[in-house]
């Protein structure tokens, strides 16, 4: 059976007919409800929160968020899906937007975010034009925007269906590159009901008194496998190389060496190279 994302882009695949069919299917509604409740349990929200629903579709997951006392905003690329949500008088605000172009909200807007069966679409591109970009570029824009839109200490849970291990690795790498602490949770492994949840954190949870690296917050979640590919963290206890400051002695010496290799004349190095001079009046 063909995967929907291999057939057409989401805004074309989910036309009026497919959107109605998707929303009225009792099987799909039950699956969406189960996955949304699972995502909320992983978020572990202690109070009613302001949540972003990414790829909200016709508002099936939004109905669960409302029933749990949360306020939410949904974004989706399919106008037909959003039309169904409007017809059902969903309580959340809706936005027609492509998540592959970023998250169009102010920094620190949301307490949390969820995405159910959506982010795998970012791995498929119908065009290599500058406005669309490669899957890696679309994933980078998405995770960078999501990271910025969440408050410090916020979490996001993205349930997705990767086509293969390469897609799973690409998605996890894009999340950690954006700065997230990322944990990958697999429900019902080795079965046809297998589900993957990408659990993301922004900073540490001050309320719980947990400090340190953001991955420690994710590592504390039950059954979550931590992914952290950031530079300098491949080995436990590895040092992170400090960024060289422009104008420092090491920066000046490196630049002078580069000029010498190009055959240009530069002054001799000395103990005074890069030294700050006092202001004299």
Task: Describe this structure as you would to a colleague.
The protein is α/β, with parallel strands linked by helices and 281 residues long. The protein is built from nine helices and eight strands. Strands 3-2-1-4-5-7-6-8 form an eight-stranded mixed β-sheet, with helices on both faces.
Short description:
This protein is of the alpha/beta class. Helices cover 33% and strands 18% of the residues. The protein has helices at 10-13, 16-24, 26-43, 60-67, 79-87, 135-149, 165-177, 215-219, 249-261; strands at residues 50-54, 71-76, 93-96, 110-116, 150-160, 181-187, 195-201, 225-227.
Helix content: 25-40%
Total number of helices: 9
How do the helices and strands follow one another from N- to C-terminus? HHHEHEHEEHEHEEHEH
Bin the strand percentage. 15-25%
What would the average pLDDT be, to the nearest integer?
80
Report the structural category: alpha/beta
Structural shape: elongated
Low-confidence stretches: 205-214, 230-241
Oligomer: single chain
Counting DSSP E segments of at least 2 residues, the number of strands comes to 8
